[in-house]
């Protein structure tokens, strides 16, 4: 659902990044780190404040 919100509202960076962050967290909770990395990568492209957090999570996941 969150990924669909991000697609529909892709022109609204704030709304899209919040939906993507929630989606990535759900993937992490399931320990599905491949999909979490994909979603965090999308967030990093938005160049918003949340992109710093996404990059930190990418670095953490890759360090596992």
Description:
With 64 residues, the chain is mainly α. The longest helix has 17 residues, at 13-29. The protein starts with a helix and ends with a helix. The relative contact order is 0.16. It is globular. The model has no long low-confidence stretch (mean pLDDT 89). It contains four helices and no strands.
Q: Which key terms come to mind for this protein?
A:
mainly alpha, 64 residues, globular, 4 helices, 80% helix
Largest sheet: none
- N- and C-termini, Cα separation: 28 Å
Rounded to an integer in angstroms, the radius of gyration calculated over CA atoms is 11 Å
Number of strands: 0
* Helix-strand makeup class: mainly alpha
Low-confidence runs: none
CA-based shape? globular
How helix-rich are the residues, as a percent range? over 70%
Strand content: under 5%
Mean pLDDT: 89
Number of helical segments? 4
Q: Spell out the helices and strands N to C.
A: HHHH
């Amino acid at each position: 659902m969150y990924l669909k919100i991000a697609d529909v509202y892709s022109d609204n960076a704030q709304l899209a990044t919040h939906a993507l962050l929630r989606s990535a967290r759900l993937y992490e909770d399931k320990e599905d780190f491949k999909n979490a990395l994909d979603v965090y990568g999308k967030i990093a492209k938005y160049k918003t404040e949340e992109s710093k957090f996404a990059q930190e999570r990418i670095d953490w996941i890759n360090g596992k």
